Amino acid sequence: GGGFGGFDFSGADFSDIFGDIFGDLFGGGRRSAGGRSQGPMKGANIRKNVRITFEEAVFGCEKELDVVLKDPCPKCNGTGAKPGTHPETCPKCGGKGQEITRKCDSCGGKGRVRKAKDITITIPAGVADGMSMRIEGKGYAGYNGGPNGDLYIHVRVKKHEDFVREGDDIY
Q: Is the whole-model pTM more than 0.70?
């Protein structure tokens, strides 16, 4: 308790601290011990690799990606509860979470369904091998009205037979 320069950590809740840090880093929101958080939570991020030619890197291009997303279930509107019912306050945790007594048969109570989508992205001219791009809001859907996660694109440029790039110069 008296270490770390005299700070007293005896009353600190490290699960809250680490939950905030790692939730932000990995796109998850905080969840209560009994299940989903009551408040809005950001959806998870998606990472995708894209391989382009040397010419596409020089002039820019558009690429279509096949991405499998987790979208809100259209049958239960993302609640996880069977249509016509709703999540109830959990008697075990006293309202810190929710209990779904009659789960949606389409998503199994998860509130999300996997869906393949084609997403067209624009790769700007001059992109270098190993660069990453963030496309905001193209990740997994958020929970309870939270924002979507982001799509991170990692660009790999194929080597050219005749040309080499060094910084902004082509030889």
A: no
CB atoms within 10 A of CB 112: 18
Q: Is 56 helix (H, G, I), strand (E, B) or coil?
A: helix
Q: List the pLDDT tens digit at each of the 171 positions of the chain.
A: 344 444 444 444 444 444 444 444 554 444 444 444 567 889 899 999 999 999 999 999 999 999 888 888 888 887 788 888 877 777 777 766 667 778 888 888 888 888 888 999 999 999 999 999 999 999 998 877 789 999 999 999 999 999 999 888 999
Residue type, 49: N
Residue 18: helix, strand or coil by DSSP?
helix
